[in-house]
Amino acid sequence: MTDNHSMVVQVAVGLIVRDGRYLIARRKPGVHLGGFWEFPGGKREAEESLEDCLRRELREELGIEVTQPVFYRVLRHEYPEKSVELHFFRCSIRAGRARALDCEELRWVAPGELSRFEFPAADRSLIEALTKEGS
């Protein structure tokens, strides 16, 4: 039997801000956590820094280039099949216009509205923190 907790997936996530609103994306149906909302980002590849990972993922998923990502916080969440380490970075769009290339839809949401959207359990404490900051 293998130990699931030995597998830690590192994910770089963008808190992309524009006019006081955050960009959130809805996951496509049929994928892990399909239908949930999330902050855009993705899994870090071997040999890749978290910042480079974030830039690559946002380019692939949204078609945008972002400003230098500024570290915000790390959240760790245990799923039955794996542990996920979410590394959140604040940034903004430097070039391009965000498009839903690899997700169901996008929305720009004020911090106080975030709690109205269904996010994965892993994001709960982050949503609370952002909501407090925005109030």
Task: Present the secondary structure layout.
Elements: E1 8-18, E2 21-26, E3 37-38, E4 41-43, H1 50-62, E5 65-66, E6 70-78, E7 83-91, E8 93-95, E9 105-109, H2 124-134
Parallel strand pairs: 1-7
Antiparallel strand pairs: 1-2, 1-4, 2-3, 2-9, 5-8, 6-7
Q: What's a quick, concise take on this entry?
A:
The protein has 135 residues and is α+β, with helices and mostly antiparallel strands. It has helices at 50-62, 124-134, and strands spanning 8-18, 21-26, 37-38, 41-43, 65-66, 70-78, 83-91, 93-95, 105-109. The N and C termini lie far apart (48 Å).
Could you say how many structural domains there are in total?
1
The biggest beta sheet is recorded as: 7 strands, mixed
Using DSSP, what is the number of strands? 9
Task: Write down the CATH class.
Answer: Alpha Beta
CATH superfamily: Nucleoside Triphosphate Pyrophosphohydrolase
List keywords for this structure.
about 140 residues, alpha+beta, Nucleoside Triphosphate Pyrophosphohydrolase, seven-stranded mixed β-sheet, globular
Give an overview of the whole structure.
This protein has 135 residues and is an alpha+beta fold. It has a single domain, classed as Nucleoside Triphosphate Pyrophosphohydrolase, CATH 3.90.79.10. It is 18% helix and 37% strand. It is built from two helices and nine strands. It has helices at residues 50-62, 124-134, and strands at residues 8-18, 21-26, 37-38, 41-43, 65-66, 70-78, 83-91, 93-95, 105-109. The strands form two sheets. Strands 1, 2, 3, 4, 6, 7 and 9 form a seven-stranded mixed sheet that branches. Strands 5-8 form a two-stranded antiparallel ribbon. A hairpin with a 4-residue loop joins strand 6 (70-78) and strand 7. The radius of gyration is 14 Å and the shape is globular. It starts with 7 loop residues before the first strand and ends with a helix. The mean pLDDT is 92.
